[in-house]
Amino acid sequence: MSASRPQAWHEALHRLQRDGLPHALATVVTSAGSTPREPGARMVITADAIHDTLGGGTFEFQVIDSARERLASGTLGMSLEAFALGGRSGQCCGGFVNVLLEIFPGSAATLAIFGAGHVGTEMVRLAAPLPWRVLWHDSRDGVFPDWAELQPRLTCRHPADSRAAVAALPVNSHALVLTHDHAEDRELIDALLARGDMASIGLIGSKSKRASFRSRLKDAGHDDAALATVRCPIGTASGGTGGDKTPYAIALAALAELLPLVGTHERADQRGLDPAELRQIFN
């Protein structure tokens, strides 16, 4: 496929869902009078791109603006937008259109892994089938395997500054720290705790490493409540308790610990559209 060819909505939808990127799907569900497109017309909208069209004009720009407002605010799920093309949209068609907006958050969670050693590599392999966005960091050059470039939802980063790398993480990321250097580990944990908005923080190491880090981080100004949020050792179902200490086993146990911590985007009060609203539209 040529990189310059615009993507149809279904191509874009497949790519964005495969890569775990936030996007909106807009569908014309009803129309009356003269309208740019018929029911069933769709377009896909992201924060910085659009794919396909609902007919153009002010009406389409309003749909795009509405979708981007929801994407920016994290308002997930479905909503219906009504457009009177001679009123709200100021177009000469004079028709009336209802558009269904479906907001998809992208990946179910963001996992930030610091360290591309044996355990980090196994974690990335194991996380591949999960609907998570993975941000893989290592300050060393040439450490990421060739296959990493082909893995969806995976971004490899070579941060020159640990604190800058932490500052760039999305809010509510799950962070796992397992670099080749204890000083770098400690700086990363310090920066992660200072942010105060991570969903979870894990640190590879022994109980003695945890005690040493705890003492130094407390001296750096972190209180007991904050320090208690750092899981160390990670993977206590295996290597942390004297069991299987192979990289694969530790990575498997560490990811298993994360599963109950990773929430879903579904809310009990967001299960589609209100039936009364649908009846009013389609009757």
From TrEMBL:
InterPro entries for this protein: D-isomer_DH_CS1, MoCofactor_Util/Proc, NAD(P)-bd_dom_sf, Xanthine_DH_XdhC, XdhC_CoxI, XdhC_Rossmann_dom
PROSITE patterns referenced in this protein's UniProt entry, alphabetically: D_2_HYDROXYACID_DH_1
Domain XdhC- CoxI: 17-75
Single GO MF descriptor: oxidoreductase activity, acting on the CH-OH group of donors, NAD or NADP as acceptor
UniProt-listed Pfam families: XdhC_C, XdhC_CoxI
Domain of life per record: Bacteria
Span of domain XdhC Rossmann: 111-258
Entry protein name: Xanthine dehydrogenase accessory factor
UniProt source species: Halomonas korlensis
Lineage: Bacteria, Pseudomonadati, Pseudomonadota, Gammaproteobacteria, Oceanospirillales
